């Protein structure tokens, strides 16, 4: 079996662009992968085109070997655009291997360690009472772990201090209303400085949050070490990490409590399984990032099924937060929730396929940008 072609498909799905990658073999078996570098899909598609030029003719059943060649055959190793492309290709190669062997991908990773994959539900509103009501709706259909946040993702002006005041009030009210048994967290979307993130955590009564996600940027581990000394709220971080090397200081220095590994950015199954093992050795559970479409979800569920150290997988299908990107007609099959868990699939490969006739006709790529946030003084700030 040899690789015949590799093609990137940037397209609009639901409410944002996605980049799907198809790897086809000479014997007709094909696999699908997805890259996770949102809003820079064309840059990743260019990397896929570069890689395809020397991967054609190679054996698709050696993904670990091909991963090493992709990473080590360039002087400027790594980087998010390159590893996002590698992730999509690696996922597609595992899909091919599963189909060729008539096995689900998790069987290729050592077999399932659980029968269902638990999820945390995402709930958002800019009104505290509505936020609590939405959380209750999610709890009523089975979610016992929720990430709460604000709905307005692209305000004209973003000022940290008013946002901190609102979020602290909302989280405190939600915990009081929802009780002590539900697991609650929030995503600060790395919009704050160390001092601002510490200030937010200090405004919460003890036990309000079970995790805070991405409070600051990740480039400087010592900044997280400083924040760690200022708060005891567990950190859920790592969705931006593009390799095991980026995870290294956070795992070794015990700066993360939940590893938000993103299989579509970290390097696919080949790299994600190494991160999982490393985290297991340090008693850290995976809490995978899963913000995209059905291929990302399927790959994430297979990963989550195969590792022993799992807390929850991200899910955007609570009653008041269902995202259209999961229901696009481009996808012929997708994994379905059973209440708040994903049953571990047993179909060959990922268990998801794509209607290629719709790729360019119904869901063409749109040039779009993630929000460019500004402070009141006109300066740029983190989205």
Structure description:
This protein is of the alpha/beta class and 383 residues long. It has 2 domains: 3-106, Enolase-like, domain 1 (2-Layer Sandwich), CATH 3.30.390.10; 111-345, TIM Barrel, CATH 3.20.20.120. 36% of the residues lie in helices and 16% in strands. Strands 4, 5, 6, 7, 8, 9, 10, 11 and 12 form a 9-stranded mixed sheet that branches. The chain has a 3-stranded antiparallel sheet with strand order 1-2-3. The protein starts with a strand and ends in a 40-residue tail after the last strand. The model has no long low-confidence stretch (mean pLDDT 95).
Write the layout of secondary structure elements.
Blueprint: E1 3-13, E2 16-25, E3 30-35, H1 41-55, H2 63-72, H3 80-101, H4 105-108, E4 116-124, H5 128-140, E5 145-149, H6 160-178, E6 183-187, H7 194-202, E7 211-213, H8 221-230, E8 235-237, H9 244-252, E9 258-259, H10 268-281, E10 285-286, H11 294-306, E11 313-315, E12 341-343
Parallel strand pairs: 4-5, 4-11, 5-6, 6-7, 7-8, 8-9, 9-10
Antiparallel strand pairs: 1-2, 2-3, 4-12
Helix pairs in contact: 1-3, 2-3, 5-6, 6-7, 7-8
């Amino acid at each position: 079996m040899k690789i015949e072609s590799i093609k990137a498909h940037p397209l609009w799905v639901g409410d944002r662009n996605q980049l799907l990658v198809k790897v086809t073999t000479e014997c007709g078996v094909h696999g699908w992968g997805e890259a996770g570098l949102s809003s820079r899909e064309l840059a990743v598609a260019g990397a896929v085109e570069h890689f395809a030029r020397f991967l054609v003719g190679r054996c698709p059943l050696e993904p670990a070997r091909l991963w090493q060649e992709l990473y080590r055959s360039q002087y400027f190793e790594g980087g998010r655009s390159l590893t996002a492309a590698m992730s999509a290709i690696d996922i597609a190669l595992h899909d091919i291997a599963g189909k060729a062997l008539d096995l689900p991908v998790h069987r290729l990773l050592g077999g399932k360690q659980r029968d269902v994959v638990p999820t945390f539900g995402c709930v958002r509103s800019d009104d505290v009472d509505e936020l609590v009501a939405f959380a209750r709706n999610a709890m009523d259909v089975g979610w016992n772990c929720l990430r709460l946040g604000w709905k307005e993702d692209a305000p004209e002006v973003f000022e940290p201090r008013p946002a901190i005041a609102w979020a602290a009030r909302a989280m405190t009210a939600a915990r009081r209303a929802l009780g002590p048994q539900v697991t609650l967290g929030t995503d600060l979307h790395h919009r704050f400085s160390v001092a601002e993130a510490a200030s937010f955590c200090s405004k919460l009564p003890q036990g309000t949050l079970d995790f805070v996600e991405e409070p600051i940027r990740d480039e400087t581990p010592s900044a997280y070490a400083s924040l760690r000394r200022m708060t005891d709220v567990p950190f859920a971080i790592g969705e931006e990490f593009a390799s095991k090397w980026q995870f290294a200081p956070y795992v070794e220095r015990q700066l993360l409590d939940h590893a938000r590994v993103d299989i579509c950015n970290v390097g696919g199954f080949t790299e994600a399984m190494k991160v999982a093992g490393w985290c297991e050795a340090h008693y850290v559970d995976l809490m995978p990032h899963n913000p995209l479409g059905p291929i990302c979800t399927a790959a994430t569920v297979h990963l989550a099924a195969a590792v022993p150290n799992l807390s929850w997988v991200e899910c955007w299908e609570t009653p008041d937060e269902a995202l259209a990107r999961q229901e696009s007609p481009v996808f012929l099959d997708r994994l379905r929730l059973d209440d708040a868990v994903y049953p571990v699939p047993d179909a060959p490969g990922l268990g998801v396929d794509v209607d290629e006739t719709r790729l360019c006709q119904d869901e063409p790529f749109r040039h779009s940008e993630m929000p460019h946030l500004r402070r009141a003084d006109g300066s740029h700030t983190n989205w």
